[in-house]
Design brief:
This protein is an alpha/beta fold. It contains 16 helices and 15 strands. The radius of gyration is 26 Å and the shape is elongated.
């Protein structure tokens, strides 16, 4: 290849990358808080490596001249259309977003199409088509070109970075579109058993509230002896018990929730095991079951959630990666503690909780401990700032649970609330941060039980047993069997020995 052709090839791909950056990839970075100079530098390097990997895949694709000329502009327009929403709404392109896009009725889709969106799509379409018309005649991709060897390095960069840090690129445009779509069509790794038993209960007027937390470790609750006052409101509540010795081997939501909400034991690590949903059993016993969640559902547990009689996912277009994600108090708009229902009911509230990025989970009025974090790049932050911001999310949790309990106090039902976090969080122990870390603190989630006076009067023996176990070491296996125990279900076998009420 002569120097002129090589120069033309370099110019083509360089300008194409600039076009991709402007219309697509910068959208994944524009909302990030960088904080320090170091944070800016790190994310700058991340951005350049991302584009180097994109170049690698595009160059290899461009070897197929005729297909590339037709297909690439179309892919570009699709990615740019998606990027518009990331730009304007800080939406995260995850499996939940793909699901919502593909399953939403067409009339709802038309309702969210704005003039700005149409203009952006027209502008991006015109730009890529004009670019190809003007510069594609100089494109001469060949396996003999030096750029081909460079493109191989670009492709390898993707796998090296992903191996170093999982989802470092997969959560960024344009990769997030592809990988989220694959995840959507991928079969779940859990099989739910159909409940065929004639399950029933003689219980009546029982309301169980299950609050599923996120990334809350037990030892950061002042209820459990933590040096900071993180749970002052709950400390004043009567009939509340904190269990400080709960164990789970699973340190991220996709693994922990399928175990907590089914009869799957922590000792059973097989992915394709057939398990029974807690909600399926209670449905057969004529319970009303409802799920109100502030997290987009993941493939590993979405079928379990769909086994509720009703489910509501608030703010489904913003995942935990978004800085505009709805706060957990918004869940209470959909939560009713009144006496309007007949029979029995299980209400599940799924919080975004203490998921990173901590400041996004709370309002600034909950900044009790300062200074707080100012960047999403961990390397630019002080340990004190990280722990302060994390503890502020516990203060928010304290307020949230207290609000729920105060509502429940007005109910005449036999009411009990169980709070369990899916896992804990690593806060600098052995140099590790956040969750999905193999460390004991990540495996000790917070767990609380509150019961009404009416519940106490009707079940004095169960309450006494509950009180006697508050210092016991238990596993998250307890939940499935404990809920069925207090529901007094008949004609279904569960392990009473696992129940915290037995």
């Amino acid at each position: 290849m002569n120097k002129l052709k090589l120069k033309q090839e370099v110019v083509f791909h360089l300008r194409l990358q600039i076009l991709i950056a402007f219309f697509i990839t910068i959208a994944s970075y524009i909302h990030l808080p960088f904080g320090s100079i170091k944070g800016n530098v790190i994310y700058g390097i991340h951005f350049l490596l991302l584009h180097f990997s994109i170049f690698g895949f595009i160059y290899i694709f461009s070897l197929f001249y005729k297909i590339f000329k037709i297909v690439f502009p179309l892919l570009f327009i699709i990615a740019a259309s998606v990027a518009f929403w990331v730009y304007t709404q800080d939406l995260t392109i995850g499996m939940g977003m793909i699901q919502a896009t593909l399953e939403t009725k067409i009339d709802i889709v038309f309702d969210i199409i704005s003039l700005q969106f149409v203009l952006f799509v027209i502008f991006s379409s015109f730009s890529i088509l004009w670019f190809f018309k003007k510069y594609y005649k100089f494109q001469t991709s060949s396996i003999k070109s030096p750029l081909f060897r460079v493109s191989i390095l670009g492709v390898l960069t993707f796998f090296v970075v992903e191996n170093y840090k999982f989802d470092a690129f997969k959560n960024r445009l344009p990769y997030s579109i592809y990988f989220s779509t694959v995840k959507y069509f991928k079969k779940p790794n859990i099989k739910l058993r159909e409940v065929k038993e004639q399950v029933f209960t003689k219980e009546d007027n029982l309301h169980i509230i299950l609050v599923v937390g996120e990334s809350v470790r037990a030892d950061h609750l002042s209820l459990n002896g933590y040096k900071r006052e993180t749970t002052p409101l709950l400390a004043k509540q009567k009939n509340l018990i904190s269990f400080g010795k709960v164990y789970t081997p699973f340190t991220f939501t996709a693994q922990s929730l399928p175990q907590i909400l089914t009869d799957k034991s922590i000792d059973n690590r097989q992915k394709n095991t057939e398990v029974t949903s807690l909600y399926s059993v209670l449905n057969e016993a004529s319970f009303q079951t409802e799920w109100i969640g502030n997290q987009t559902l993941e493939k590993s547990y979405k079928d379990i959630i769909y086994s509720n009689k009703t489910e509501v996912i608030i703010d489904k277009f913003h995942s935990f990666l978004s800085f505009k994600k709805e706060k957990d108090l918004a869940l209470l708009k959909y939560f009713s503690a009144d006496d309007s229902f007949t029979g029995n009911k299980l209400t599940s509230l799924h919080m975004i909780g203490s998921h990173w990025y901590y400041n996004s989970r709370i309002d600034s009025s909950f900044y009790k401990f300062k200074p707080v974090i100012t960047s999403k790049y961990l390397g630019s932050l002080k340990k004190e700032e990280l722990i302060n911001s994390y503890d502020n999310t516990i203060v928010y949790l304290d307020y949230f649970l207290n609000e729920v309990i105060e509502r429940l106090k007005r109910s005449s039902k036999k009411t009990i609330l169980i709070y369990i976090s899916d896992h804990g969080e690593t806060l600098g122990e052995d140099g590790k941060w956040l969750h999905a870390q193999e460390h004991n603190v990540s495996k000790n989630p917070a767990m609380l039980v509150w019961y009404s006076n009416n519940f106490k009067d009707n079940y004095p023996l169960k309450v006494n047993k509950l009180l006697s176990k508050k210092t016991d070491s238990i596993t998250t296996d307890f939940l499935f069997h404990s809920v069925l125990d207090i529901s007094d279900v008949k004609n279904y076998q569960y392990l009473k020995v696992q129940s915290i009420f037995n």
